[in-house]
Amino acid sequence: MMTTLILWGTLAFVLSFFLTLFVRRVAIHFGIIDQPGSWRKIHSRPVAMLGGIAIFVSITAATIGILISSDWLTSGEIATRQYVGVLLGGLILMVGGIIDDRFTLPPRLAIIAPILAVLTAIWFGIEVEKLSNPLGGQIFLAGWQSDLLVFVWLLVVMYTTKFLDGLDGLATSVTSVGALMVMLLSLTVAYFQPDVALLSAVALGAFVGFLFWNIHPASIFLGEGGSTFVGYMLGILAVISGGKLATALLVLGIPLLDVVWVVSRRWREGGFSRIFQGDKKHLHHRLLKLGWGQTHIVLLYIVIASAFGVSALFLQSREKLVALLILGIIMVLGALLLVQKDRHA
Q1: How far apart are the C-alpha atoms of 277 and 107, rounded to whole Å?
Q2: H or E segment to which residue 139 belongs
Q3: N or C: which end of the chain has fewer CB within 10 A?
């Protein structure tokens, strides 16, 4: 099993590593470049976009290769049809992302591709049949309940990574930690799911292959499609692993709580329309303003995500809930401290 994971994970890494170079050339050729100069930009030179395409193509190629050559991915409860749905959803995100990167769509149009991607995944059978009850036992979901949960879950995770993609390598690093944790959890005796572990290894390899070029100073960005696709893949892994949403929540805890904090603040300031107007008040922006370097901020996120992600490997459902509460308290206290410092700066 480990040989198979290493083989396909390495293949995805190599594909992503070299495809990123090709995609960067294509983005530069067609002028799909993130230019500095805007008040929201923190980079000082033009940077190619569309990096998510390299990740998507690598995962797609590896997944199709595994499906053709073996039954590793279909040995459990996940059928070929569901993998097709996941990849088609990813393709929709790529097409929507390319259009958005090229023409800078308003939020009301940019959200169309993520919604269509999620609906496609659900249509092809991505579902949550049951959830662990923190008080004991299982919670079984009806079909419509599963569809609603998956729809909301994937959109929340996608927009969390989209908002997280504000520093070089930040979104890719955190989602890499998430893919690693789902893979490790799927290899434990209690949850042994070789199919999920293999897809996680493929996603992890593709993420890290791109991350090599995305770390500070980045030579290519994920782009709109890529920033949502990495979240989409992590969300999918959490769903197909049997509703291991708590594991992904622990990894994404700080970024997700940051999104909740920012969205609630924007709502108070200007209502619904204000929510989609960007600013530089995310946690990573505040740390940057305090003089932290991009690399140090990314490392902080990786350490926190890894610490709480590893805890998911050993904690039971009720204990994971406690860990989430602790994470929430840490985030609230940290946010209040940063706001106070920002006001006195």
Answers
A1: 9
A2: strand 138-140
A3: C
